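pinging the channel bc i need a second pair of eyes. not urgent but kinda urgent?? the chain im working w is below, pasted from the shared doc
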Amino acid sequence: MDDQHIDKDEYLKAFESYVLLVSRISSTKRHGTYRKNINMIGFQKTRTHLETLLEGNLTEKEQGIINALINMLKEMLNLQDQLSNLMKRFNDFIQSKRT
């Protein structure tokens, strides 16, 4: 089909898709950047402190609880790193489309 013969319905559908795309890009950039920049130092220090506690005289049950907490903190920090990497790739992609 020739570009000069696009009917109004096709044009409106394409425009609606474009508006949705721009909205999602903006939302991803705003919310993703906010979440990527969350300060994780408190989580890192808590993990380090819990690891230090494991060196003490603890019961097996206490060690199990602390190990579970450490594993959860490691997973949270890992997910934060993944989000940072994903947002970098997203921003690189958006930048490549602008040039």
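so Helices lie at 8-36, 41-53, 60-98. and Residues 61-86 form one domain. — does that match what u expected or am i reading it wrong
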